[in-house]
């Protein structure tokens, strides 16, 4: 009903509406105050984060060169496809990327950093061109250059150089404070791992301003990634290659070095693997395949595999026996083909026996009976003492990761570990390098160095020089004397003469007739898993040794055969190409 | 100062600031003034709009009330035509006629405004009656439903508010209005089931935008970042990163307030808000003064329409109202909205002029 009261009510309603408007004005103003004044700082920072994107550029790694300057490992540029999320057109852009590349992209997207997806790695050059041509239509899609490790002739020095891979989550936890990022590369084995701190360079970054679609508006700041140091190894690449080829299809080890400095010139482990595979990124299956191969290509045999030394160990017995004067160089022995001791008969490798032999001939012929006798005369304690003097079972101080030490058995060890007494039979076995005794090829090599150097042992090393960015030498590894084994010079002379006779008239006949005086020793390591391992090690020229070499051929039969043939090729190569 | 001058000044300021804001977000501004650029077209619409303003200021518009049925039917008809012949925009909603030049839902606001003012005032003996409430509800529901089907939830809501505002201003008893509001509030959860997916997402995004800042919460988050990073004095004209690097969505229309605040800061935002509240104040003040019931309804409803749109738009820019596509009157880019509001403002100006004259005559 229309009346005065109604009219008054309507008038009041308009006034109420006015107050509602004023209340709303107050609320909106308060909120505006809160956002722009109270929290302005916070929002400004969000806005900054919105528009500035920091792309870290992986650190470069230094190159690795051999002693003559051949580049063994270097970083080469590869391309990856990165997608910056944050645009509302993700689906569309993905569709266009597939169109442009003309193939389906496996949607195994990997988030590298918040908002950054890696679509493809190791992009072929033609795809890079296609993407760049269409970049206008592909907002947020970037082609990024990243370094990948490339190794010369992959397999030849894989176990020495090692390989690089993405830093694992455990490594990241341990190294986090050292500034590694999720996607960084890290040396996983060999030189790459041991000298990680030198090889790893500094990462770079690119700070870019992007618009809402992730398109780069401008680059604000840029620092290119760099490396700090390159390494020059003592390794002689051509020699390494010759050694690798000398092994042929056989599995085993070749070590060559300079006894006067400790430099390792060749470090071959076979079977090997291609470290370039790891740079590309190995699939899980490929990785498992590598791991499960029976021959274990990832094992760096020279430093990580254990073998019985076989007759190579007789040299230690010979040195000890002479030095302890349990024998003289003039003594002669009779070998009927066996030694009877207690109620047992210990056989010589030559069933018919060597007949009457001098001490030096015993070395040359590797007569077991003579060394049984010497071993028994010395007793296990004295043998152990000499073994310790020469460094068996001790840290080799080599600059590579994961170096194992061999095992040298003693009566105390046997009592404690096996709860058994040490029998003379154990001594007999020990004196020809069998039984419980285990060594790494490196230990055997170092032992040969000690003999060649007449007691002076230098720390073996694979690194020679450290170079800075401009190739200037900033550090050089100097020979470092580890130990001096003081034996009478007569002792050295006699044993080295015996080792020369190994080649000229004994078991080393396969190396006979080389134009250099060679001192060496064969070894045959019994192996419960199959054919014996074949050893051959020595040095030349024997009067002033410049090269020490050690060859191990797995399942190569006796040392006079396979190993000596490989060694002959190596020595011949050195004589021809390097001279002495 | 005469109220009319103040009113014209306020309206003019809003329009100029609107052009300034549209210019600052115009991606084509470097190509200079022209009908292709956004700010060029906005200026053009302003010219037409101010012509309408003057038209209604100097010529009597009583005839608009007398033919309000016609406007009502025309708007219902054109809204129906939109559903049949309409053209879609980027979001897929059909909102346009005549190759995207006319947005009938904007004109429907004005048509309903006239219709309700005239309808209620001619039936003034039945004000506060349930029967008139139901009848007017039906008349408001028809265009609201058509708009809702486009779908344009925001404008449908505006039409609904217009109707409720008419009841409120029509003097319906508090208890009846409270009952009505309670009913709407009680039933609104049911609307969840008829909402489209994107609308549900918007509701969730409104409740917690930072949950999914790159997805459904993107608008709200970017808008708040823009406003917040403006600080007290703003980052200066043409230089907010949110706006210039296009992080802010719907910069010309729905989120123009945020773009403005990024450039001119808290101070700029307060200037805009003050202009808005002044405009509203003058409109309602005028409504109090006119003796004619239908004109009073018209003026106060126009004020409420204006207030609601500003409140929802600025509220959503500030993150305290859900995102609905309601433009900011006078400021947002868009011809239909500008013409409708300037025409309305012209009528208000005439009412101010007339009431001032009447008052002067009374004194004499």
UniProtKB/TrEMBL annotation, chain B:
<feature type="transmembrane region" description="Helical">
    <location>
        <begin position="177"/>
        <end position="195"/>
    </location>
</feature>
<keyword id="KW-0573">Peptidoglycan synthesis</keyword>
<protein>
    <recommendedName>
        <fullName>Cell wall polymerase</fullName>
    </recommendedName>
</protein>
<dbReference type="GO" id="GO:0008360">
    <property type="term" value="P:regulation of cell shape"/>
</dbReference>
<dbReference type="GO" id="GO:0009252">
    <property type="term" value="P:peptidoglycan biosynthetic process"/>
</dbReference>
<keyword id="KW-0472">Membrane</keyword>
<feature type="transmembrane region" description="Helical">
    <location>
        <begin position="296"/>
        <end position="318"/>
    </location>
</feature>
<dbReference type="InterPro" id="IPR011923">
    <property type="entry name" value="RodA/MrdB"/>
</dbReference>
<dbReference type="GO" id="GO:0032153">
    <property type="term" value="C:cell division site"/>
</dbReference>
<dbReference type="GO" id="GO:0005886">
    <property type="term" value="C:plasma membrane"/>
</dbReference>
<keyword id="KW-0133">Cell shape</keyword>
<feature type="transmembrane region" description="Helical">
    <location>
        <begin position="43"/>
        <end position="60"/>
    </location>
</feature>
<feature type="transmembrane region" description="Helical">
    <location>
        <begin position="129"/>
        <end position="147"/>
    </location>
</feature>
<dbReference type="InterPro" id="IPR018365">
    <property type="entry name" value="Cell_cycle_FtsW-rel_CS"/>
</dbReference>
<dbReference type="GO" id="GO:0051301">
    <property type="term" value="P:cell division"/>
</dbReference>
<feature type="transmembrane region" description="Helical">
    <location>
        <begin position="330"/>
        <end position="353"/>
    </location>
</feature>
<dbReference type="GO" id="GO:0016757">
    <property type="term" value="F:glycosyltransferase activity"/>
</dbReference>
<dbReference type="InterPro" id="IPR001182">
    <property type="entry name" value="FtsW/RodA"/>
</dbReference>
<feature type="transmembrane region" description="Helical">
    <location>
        <begin position="69"/>
        <end position="86"/>
    </location>
</feature>
<feature type="transmembrane region" description="Helical">
    <location>
        <begin position="153"/>
        <end position="170"/>
    </location>
</feature>
<keyword id="KW-0812">Transmembrane</keyword>
<feature type="transmembrane region" description="Helical">
    <location>
        <begin position="255"/>
        <end position="284"/>
    </location>
</feature>
<keyword id="KW-0961">Cell wall biogenesis/degradation</keyword>
<dbReference type="GO" id="GO:0015648">
    <property type="term" value="F:lipid-linked peptidoglycan transporter activity"/>
</dbReference>
<keyword id="KW-0328">Glycosyltransferase</keyword>
<feature type="transmembrane region" description="Helical">
    <location>
        <begin position="106"/>
        <end position="122"/>
    </location>
</feature>
<keyword id="KW-1133">Transmembrane helix</keyword>
<dbReference type="Pfam" id="PF01098">
    <property type="entry name" value="FTSW_RODA_SPOVE"/>
</dbReference>
<keyword id="KW-1003">Cell membrane</keyword>
<dbReference type="GO" id="GO:0071555">
    <property type="term" value="P:cell wall organization"/>
</dbReference>
<keyword id="KW-0808">Transferase</keyword>
